Amino acid sequence: MGNCFAKGKESRSPRRIGPSPSSLKLSAIQADEHLPAEATRDSVESSRYTSIKVLRSALERGDVKLLKASWFGQHGTTGKRLPSRQTLERESPDAFANCAMVQTCLREVETAAACDERQCTFPGIVAVSYCWETNLHPDTRGSLLRKLAPVLEFYASQRAARDLDPDFALLIDFWSLHQSAVRTEEQAEGFRRAMGAMDVFFAHKGTVALLMTAIPDDWQISNLYADRGWPTFERALASLDKTGGLCLDVGHFAPQNWHGGDFSRKQPQVLKEQGIADAPTLLELEEGARVPPFPPAEFRRLLARKRFAEAQDRGVLAGLYDT
To answer: Is 70 exceeded by the pLDDT of residue 26?
Structure first.
């Protein structure tokens, strides 16, 4: 990403794992916001989801890497399986947002977090919540990306309608975090730090959470979005303090006007006209996206009924939500 972002620490695992739930979130706050060890939860929580410090730190270190929505929209139309982050970095580095783009998107997030308007301003960092098709790869035939691509074009059109750059940055865990069965100690530490920042990408008042609550038609899986632990956690976080327009349920998005989702070839003016014409779609996506907040004990009981590929994740997420 140029000189303003450091080379990243690599992180791995088929779906997410992390350290003990009792210490994960506070240690991440202390590391990312340069606080003394004796800092209390109360002293840092008030700004965790409004400041961009945690987001910036995760991106500067390379623990998390954001993706270009235009690149993913284009490849989503091909129906091809995409490899994990480390292969994309080697073979398709243009899949990732560059330094200048990330800096711009962070400024948009900061502005959105300070805005009192209820309406979505379509800021530049979008976190996608979804369930994996298998434990080893989330989208073995490219079906998920094909389903997501029209949503990305819709979002780009809304940005164009607001005279913003149509392109924006995505967090999608399999491609934003390194995935591998083998990790060095240094890479494992980077992965743990990334886990400590995941709550911020979804709960921050200036980011947008896209909830892919419906699976592709050709998936043959029994545990759906609502059955999974990580999507349950991500949706709960996105419902805590965001305005309605920053948490969108795109599972049943109707793509009739979006031509498959490849907006990289369209002129901004064309996207702008689409965005103005289809503004009512936003209200449909807001409806039913958020869930009521859960008391920590109730959320633990909820997670106990959800499916996890890694059993220890249940405790990690309960601890993150609790703190």
So the answer is: no
